[in-house]
Structure formats: C-alpha cells, structure tokens
C-alpha cells in the first residue's frame, strides 16, 4: 500500500516572503538578529521567533553584519542562548549559477544518483541528498508516524545503476506544518553520497521547463518533464509551484529541478482527478527549514516536535524504592 502522499487539498506547506533573522552561536557566545531598541542598560534584539533583551553588562561589542543585523557578543559564560541555530557553511549547497541550461538527459545523468527512494512499513516516497554525509530531504507525510525507515540509493557502477538499501536511518528534524523532514543515513558502510544543489524558485517564470525524478507507484528513478504552470497556486493560504510534470503517489519528497539542475521545489501533491496538475513546495521553504533545523529537531523535549510523549498518570508510577 502506498503512503498517503497526495491530496486535492494541501497537506501543509508554506513559503516565506523573507527569511527571519537567524541566531548564530560562536562558542556559545553570540546572537545575530535585528536591533529593535537600544537603552542605556540593555539592547532588544529580534531573532525572528522572539525578542531577546540582552543586558549591556554582558555585551562586549556590537558588530555590523549586514544592514539592520548585528552580532552581540557576550562576556563570560552567562550569556542568553537561543535554540535556533543557523545552518553551518557547507551543510547544503545553494545555487551554482550555471550559465547555460542543459538537456534533461544530461542533467539526469549527472544528478540522478542523488535522488533516492524512501520506504517505510506502510508505504514509500522519494527524497534527495543535500550533502555527501548522508543528510536527505523528504516530505513529512512520507514518514509520518514511522520509526522504521529505509533508503534505497542507486549508484553508477560499470555503466549500470546498482541499488543498495540502507536501514540505519535517523530522523533529524521534522516540520509537519510545512511537510518537510530531514533524515540521515548512519550505516557504518555508508560512502560519500552524490548530492544536489538547492536553487531559487523566485527567478522562475510561468512556462519555464522543469522536471521531476522520483518513484511514482514504486517505479524507481522515473523522470517526468513539464513546464511551470504558476508560481502562486494557493492552498489554505500557502503558495505552491504548479507544474505539468507528471506527479503521482511515490513522487512525494522528490525534487523538482530547473534546467540548470538545481532543486526549485519538493513534489508533494497532485489533483486526484486530473492530469498535469502537480504541485511542489518552493525550495525557499526547504532552505528556511534547514537553516533552522535545530528548532525542528526530532526530540521529545522539543515543543515543536510533532511527536511528544507525555509522562504517565501519577497513579501508575511506581514510588521510588518499591519493588
């Protein structure tokens, strides 16, 4: 049975008009944000999800990082630390600024190995590597409620594609509201993986060619080509990329590429009773999720975690010392 992957109504997803200011921790002693107000005894810094008031006594200096952005470096170890951590340089590649478009055939040959099949006991979907260390992106709904996850990777060997299944897969971060998930292959024999470049959907125009790679209906490594129908298809207040590239159950979590070979979206749904009506989450949402992945870390102690296990009722707990 295929995983619940596509709905005529949006599962979840969002774009952001602009990235929120991010927190950067340097030896656990710095915060990056927008200064809202300066007082003689404190500085109010907007870090995107909240406003931190930092005492002047703990600030050694304020350096300009970019217009309206500052870094407040605290003295000593008693500094204010926020949980959102910006993506480390090199965690993913963003925009290779390729000067010329290429054919789908050539691009698939170069980047096809970075696209994988994600399997669970209840179904399957697609995904793609964002770096060589085995971190990959898929849809939240592909792994929703699952703990046994395997990833099938196809590698070129002697001119042939050979599949290999990795079963030691860790859930790193989840955002069910934007339908994205970050996984990591942790098998001991895992090699360095081929990965994709995250592009930019903003420069795309209606009518531009795009293509998808995925596993529709379990048919791994299926390539479909089409055009961008609109960049502003709205579902429940969120904007999606609409494409004529054929999208079917099993494509969920797979990449939508432009003709430079850069990911511009994650395919995640289609209109059930229609053809050429596929939709993708814009790549800007993926970048935001990755840049703030610590805020979405898969942990029972994280209030943003979609799975939170509560303590059992007090009358069921065994008092300390009882046998």
Short description:
The chain is mainly beta and 323 residues long.
Outline the structure in words.
The protein folds into 3 domains: 70 residues, no CATH class; 91 residues, Thrombin, subunit H, CATH 2.40.10; 86 residues, Thrombin, subunit H, CATH 2.40.10. It is globular. It has a 7-stranded antiparallel sheet with strand order 11-10-7-8-9-13-12. Strands 15-16-17-20-19-18 form a 6-stranded antiparallel β-barrel. The N and C termini lie far apart (46 Å). With 323 residues, it is mainly β. It is built from 3 helices and 20 strands.
The assigned CATH architecture of the largest domain is: Beta Barrel
Largest sheet geometry:
7 strands, antiparallel
Chain-averaged pLDDT? 74
Count of DSSP strands? 20
CATH class division of the largest domain: Mainly Beta
Radius of gyration: 22 Å
Order of helices and strands: EEEEEEHEEEHEEEEEEEEEEEH
CATH fold description of the largest domain: Thrombin, subunit H
* Proportion of residues in helical segments: under 10%
Specify the CATH homologous superfamily of the largest domain: Trypsin-like serine proteases
Can you tell me the residue ranges where pLDDT is under 50 for at least 5 consecutive residues?
1-28, 64-88
* Shape field: globular
Question: Could you tell me the strand content as a percent range?
Answer: 35-45%
Trace the largest sheet across and list its strands. 11-10-7-8-9-13-12
Distance between the termini: 46 Å
